[in-house]
Hints:
By secondary structure, the chain is of the alpha+beta class. It is built from 1 helix and 10 strands.
Amino acid sequence: MKTTVKFFVILFALVMQVSNVRADEPTPVVVQGTRTVPTTSGNVGPRRGRAQVVTLDMDIMLDLENRCLNFYDTEGRTITYYIYDEDDFEVASGTISFATVEEATVSLSGLADGIYTLSIECDGTTYEGEFGIE
């Protein structure tokens, strides 16, 4: 019986270590936007179609250990980003050009713990996503 208890105590300790390590890894931030596509239905002139939910095809990783957002893009685009706090106040903004680089980092060191909204303007579409700092 003591062997079984020891086994479960050791197993529990190992599981806690693994979950602790996993919490420190960067996590992806998913940003989505809506886009309407003009359609024609036999009427004169185009009309708006249904809004499509689109996801920005750029990798954005939240690194809590270093308190930063890492942006990765290989298509050479230029984006404008805005970060809003829980009260919808803009706390950070900037423009990133991926024409000469494929990776950019935005520091979050001045931000308090909480939930933030990331808004990105890229190629005429605005994308939004949320991330949390703890």
